[in-house]
Amino acid sequence: MKSLVLALFALSLPLVACTAADAPPAADAAPAPAAAPADAAPAADPAKPAADVERPTLKVATLDGAQYDLATKRGRWVVVNFWATWCSPCLKEMPELDALDAEREDIDVVGLAYEEIEPADMRAFLAKRPVKYPIAILDVYDPPADFPTPRGLPMTHVIAPDGTVAKRFMGPVTKEELAAVVDGAGKDAKAQAAGGT
């Protein structure tokens, strides 16, 4: 029974998230990197820390030329969203993330474009689908070491004010789901404080 449940879960993943295979071929784009054989073990880079660390770091240049440093956001909630322009669920959730970023002073959003795209092409895309939160284009061959490499998109990490990962979402997420994580953590903290006095 357990293996049946796992098999059904694995089959449902492609329905909720995009993969690189979902990307439309671009006439002027470089060919996609070849997938490693299924039995090949990924090469370990001892210089990089293991992904999924307790307090991830993130330093990236944003599309507007600024530097984004997750460490400067301590004391605030941060939504780190891995996405791509070719991913339909990603595009659907962009207005949700933008609204959350605009409506909640205690939450910041940063979009990490996980695809090979030129900055000019990204700017043209964002002119048609504008958002107010910062966007950075990641190097898909050297993604941020402290976050797990996305196996599908969108992939969203909710970072708590102390810098720890409070929750991860695979697939599209709504502003209500993200707000529930933040608000639920606040209620839990108040309950713990009330119980400790």
Automatic annotation (TrEMBL):
Stored InterPro entries: Redoxin, Thioredoxin-like_sf, Thioredoxin_domain, Thioredoxin_ResA/DsbE_sf
Signal peptide (UniProt feature, chain positions): 1-17
The keyword Signal is annotated on this UniProt entry: yes
Protein origin, superkingdom: Bacteria
Organism per entry: Lysobacter brunescens
Pfam families assigned: Redoxin
Span of domain Thioredoxin: 30-187
Assigned keywords, A-Z: Cytochrome c-type biogenesis, Disulfide bond, Redox-active center, Signal
Location, primary (coarse class): other
Name this protein carries in UniProt: TlpA family protein disulfide reductase
Compartments, record wording: Cell envelope
Keyword Ribosomal protein: no
Region (Disordered): 28-52
Gene3D superfamilies attached to this UniProt entry: Glutaredoxin
Biased composition (Low complexity): 28-50
UniProt cross-references to CDD domains, sorted A to Z: TlpA_like_family
